[in-house]
Write a structure and sequence with these properties.
It is built from no helices and six strands. The protein is an all-beta fold. Strands 2-1-3 form a three-stranded antiparallel beta sheet, with no helix packed on it.
């Protein structure tokens, strides 16, 4: 036959032994990768078909339509990208010609994408009245990789 054994005791909180083993270290590495420009293109609308004109001379006239395409990756997410600046120039086919010296010389276009608040804004910083710019024609496409793999980042 078994009977329960009951022992009445008091706990002494001042009598707690401690043991420390501090001969190991913990190393933490934080990767802060900069956003990267993967590729870009400059295209001309030729009868409804967008044709690359990257590294080529273009026709400067009032009816020509062009677009810039920029593909950027950021491993930490799109919030890492505050600004994308695009500048272009026209030198009349002569690199020694200086035009618009106050804006850096030969700069004819300064387009800026801004995302400092989480909302995309597009600005034509220069020129202000020589070309037609409609920010409503500007778009962004953010692609998020749900698994976070390095090959498919934002």
């Amino acid at each position: 036959m078994f009977e329960p054994i009951i022992i009445i005791s008091n706990a002494d909180p001042g009598n707690i032994s401690e043991s420390w083993y501090n001969e190991t270290t913990l190393n933490v590495t934080v990767l802060q990768l900069q956003p990267r420009v993967n590729w870009y293109d400059f295209q001309y609308n030729q009868s409804g078909t967008w044709v690359s004109r990257l590294n080529a001379q273009i026709d400067v006239n009032a009816s020509a339509e062009y677009r810039f395409i920029v593909n950027i990756s950021s491993d930490q997410g799109w919030a890492d990208i505050d600004y994308i600046n695009i500048t272009a120039w026209y030198d009349n086919g002569d690199d020694s010609t200086t035009y618009n010296q106050t804006a850096g010389g030969n700069i004819n276009l300064y387009l800026q994408y801004e995302n400092t608040t989480g909302t995309a804004n597009y600005y034509m910083l220069w020129p202000d009245d020589e070309i037609t710019f409609n920010s409503g024609d500007c778009t962004e496409t953010v692609v998020t990789d749900p698994s976070g793999s390095p090959g498919n980042t934002e």
